[in-house]
Amino acid sequence: MAESEKPLLIKRYASRRLYNTETSDYVTLEDIAGFIRDGREVKIVDLKSGDDLTRQYLLQIVAEHESKGQSVLPINVLTDLVRSYTTQATSAVPQFLAASFEMFRDSQSKWFENVNSMNPMAKGFEAMQAQQEAFLKAMTGARPGEEGDKPAQPASESKEDLETIKKQLSDLQAKLSKLDK
C-alpha cells in the first residue's frame, strides 16, 4: 500500500496531546481537520491502551465547528441522530448516513467534472465576445492606431458610407415628422 493511501496515524499520549507519527510533531484538532479536508484518512489511537479513538475525535471536531457557528447539521438532523441511539433504527442509521454521503460525494464530483468540461464552452463565449467587440469597433469607426488590428478603410469608402448613413437618417427624420402630424 502506498504511503499516501495509508491512514495518517495520530497517537494520543497520556497527557492528551496528539502526536503525528509521520512528521514527528504534535498536532491540534484543527490540524487533523485540515488533513481530513485535504483528503487524508486519519486514525487516532491511544498510545497506552491501543484503543481506536478516531470516532471520538471526529465527533469532537464536528462539535467544535458547530459551536463556532459553522453549522452544517440542522437541529432536526441532530435530534434524529439522538433519537436513533434509543430506537431499533440504530442499526440502519449508519448505513443510511454512509450511503447518503457516498451519493453526495459522487454528485459533487460529477458536478465538478461538468464545470470543468464546460471550460471549452467558456472559451467559445470569449471568442464570441471578441467578435462582438470587433463588430462594435467597426460600427463606431475606430481609427487606425486605436485598439484593434482593423486595417484602415480607404477614404472614398468612408465618405460613401457616411453619405449613405446621412441620407438614411434624413429619410427617417422625414418619416418621423409625417407621423407627428
Question: Care to describe what's here?
Answer:
The chain is α+β, with helices and mostly antiparallel strands and 181 residues long. It has six helices and four strands, in the order βββαβααααα. Strands 3-2-1-4 form a four-stranded mixed sheet. A hairpin with a 4-residue loop joins strand 2 (18-20) and strand 3. The chain is elongated and about 95 Å long. The chain starts with 7 loop residues before the first strand and ends with a helix.
Summarize the structure.
The chain has helices spanning 29-37, 54-67, 75-84, 92-117, 119-140, 155-180; strands at 8-12, 18-20, 25-27, 42-46. With 181 residues, the chain is α+β, with helices and mostly antiparallel strands.
Strand content: 5-15%
Number of strands: 4
Uncertain ranges: none
Structural class: alpha+beta
The major pleated sheet works out as: 4 strands, mixed
Taking all Cα atoms into account, the compactness measure Rg is 34 Å
Distance between the termini: 90 Å
Order of helices and strands: EEEHEHHHHH
Helical fraction equals 55-70%
Shape: elongated
Average of the residue pLDDT scores: 79
Strand line-up of the largest beta sheet: 3-2-1-4
Number of helices: 6
